[in-house]
Amino acid sequence: MSEENWIEVGSTDSIEEEDLIRFDHQDKTFCVYRLTDGFYATDGICTHEAVHLEDGLVMDDEIECPMHQGIFNIKSGEALSPPACEDLKTYPVKVDNDKIFIKID
Amino acid sequence: MKNNIIILGGGQAGIYAAREIRQNDLKSNIKILGEENLLPYERPPLSKDFLLDKKNEEDLYFHSSDILKNENIEFENVSISKVDFENKKLFAKNDDVYSYDSLLISTGSENKKLSLDNNLKDDVYYLRNLEEAKKIKEIVSNKNKITIIGGGFIGLEIASSLSQLQKKVIVIEIGNQLMGRIIPKQIADLVQNTHLEHGNEIILNKQIEKITKKNGIYEILLNDNSLIETDFVIAGIGSTPAVKLFENTNLKLDNGIVTNQFCETSIKDVYAAGDVSNFYHPFYERNMRLESYQHAQNHGICAGKNIAGVKTEYTSIPWMWSDQFNLNLQLTGICDEYDEIIERGNDINNGVIYFFLKNNKIRGACGVGVIGKVGRDIRITSKLTEKDTIVDKQILSDQNLKLNKLIQK
Ligand SMILES: Cc1cc2nc3c(=O)[nH]c(=O)nc-3n(C[C@H](O)[C@H](O)[C@H](O)COP(=O)(O)OP(=O)(O)OC[C@H]3O[C@@H](n4cnc5c(N)ncnc54)[C@H](O)[C@@H]3O)c2cc1C
Ligand code: FES
User: Fold this and answer.
1) How is A45-94 classified by DSSP, letter by letter?
2) In this predicted complex, what is the ipTM?
3) CA spacing 20 to 30 A to A104: which of A56, B111, B194, B336?
4) Is there a single domain that holds both residue B207 and residue B230?
């Protein structure tokens, strides 16, 4: 695990609780979430069709896709409700000095 | 006790019911009888990504045969042609007989057909299943000008797909707006504009008088005497519940199989779910029949629970979507019982939603926008509807204010 894979996303107050922001890095899109117990990150595009999850609804530990209501667990990436059936990739997150970092492989 | 449970109709409601029964009942025999020689698959992509070659057959199946095997759910390809409710038996065309202790009817719906008075019956295509989608895909590959009769969801989705395949598309609709039966005119007009911008021709308020064929080209005569020449005709003029099998039985029918909130029909041990059922919705205090993905799934699951003895009311707030070009349209609740309409947004790029309220509570909403722009708000709307919340209309109408502020935790 080399240090340089941790990418700075922004400050912790840039995300409201039970909400998310989209984060683009190189040619990839991520979603970074603030849940009651901390920050989490997943791929930013639904696994069902190529739709940005940034417009989705965060409820408890779940993100619901705005297109067809596919639901994923934010912490594990597990696809919980069809039409989404393929899991969403998740990424480690750390907070340092009020800044959020995600680890991209 | 070990039961024989038969699911008649191997579509979405059927497969979700089967798996739910197994979750609650490890002993009973569960058998799905389906006349399509395919495991249950998703229909929505048939008019969209399947035509566009973005999804293929393997992408459509809900569950693999391995999952069904693991859960000990049998699937048999057979078409049932007669039922005897009194003796709890189903009869196949090939004279095979199936006995059941509990029966779920999930036969879905059938496309309405045009009444054509000449021998062009086989020339007009309809879309309901994978086989028809494959045929349409093959035929359109060497046609240019295609006419779609009917401006409902399926017709318009096909029109959108064919336009993206560089075809010249004409849509003929009998009503004075697209998707007339359920969608507010303002939203229908926004969708219509998108079709026009992509070069599709939309003809409203016109009826088909006659279709003739000359040298491989079809001529469609409209009731204003205008004539449309076209290479291929597809009709999407609505559907009816698949209940022919039950017409001469004592099963209560009225725009589908009448069921209560527990998916029970008028006959003991016989349940119905999905498109075929006209079910009682306790929240709206009335019966309704829905043709939607979410409903087929949730209603199937609810029927499964009840069949397995876990008494469960069906209270899901209706929801459906349609994808056309870069637009995603969504509908939640019911939009025909209201005393007030509130509009949120006016630009399709940010999403436009119409809320239908009664006594300051949302009964339903319909929205359209560029992909991703209405889903969150429509989902929150479903929750507000379900919770019977008295809503702050200022927040509803102002797109700058977040709707989740209205959800009481
Ligand atoms: C082209 C198309 C696009 C759609 N797009 C959308 C969309 O974008 N969004 C949305 O919300 N909904 C959409 N829908 C609607 C959704 O797919 C249906 O509501 C859903 O499939 C209904 O599920 P069901 O199980 O009730 O019926 P079905 O999935 O239709 O399954 C019924 C099955 O029963 C079988 N059957 C019938 N009679 C017999 C018999 N006598 N013996 C044996 N088998 C029998 C049929 O062959 C069929 O396989 C679309 C539908 C179509 C056709
Ligand atoms: S695109 Fe996300 S559920 Fe379909």
Assistant:
1) B-SSSS-BGGGSEEETTEEE-TTT--EEETTT--EEETT--SPPPEE-EE
2) 0.86
3) A56
4) yes
Tell me which chain B residue has its CA closest to the CA of residue A64: B376
**Structural domain total, chain B:** 3
Q: Give Cα B66 to chain centroid, integer Å.
A: 27
CATH code for position B279: 3.50.50.60
Q: Which of A 13-72 lie inside 8 A of B, CB atoms? A: 49, 51-52, 54-57, 64-69
Q: Which domain holds residue B363?
A: 326-406
The residue written with tokens 């209201």 in the block is: B338
Asked if residue B247 and residue B233 are part of one domain, the reply reads: no
Residue-wise pLDDT for B20-71, tens only, equals 999 999 999 999 999 999 999 999 999 999 999 999 999 999 988 999 999 9
**Which numbered atom of ligand 1 lies nearest the CA of B300?**
25
Half-sphere exposure of B38 (CA within 13 A, CB side): 16
pLDDT digits (tens, 9 = 90+) for B341-358: 999 999 999 999 999 999
- Give residue for tokens 């309704």: B288
Give the CA-trace dihedral at B331, B335, B339, B342, to 10 degrees: 20
The full set of domains in chain A, from first to last, is: 3-103 (2.102.10.10)
Indicate whether B226 and B268 sit together in one domain.
no
Ligand 2 neighbour A65 (Cβ under 6 A): yes
Residue nearest to atom 52 of ligand 1 (CA): B43
Is there a single domain that holds both residue B233 and residue B245? Answer: no
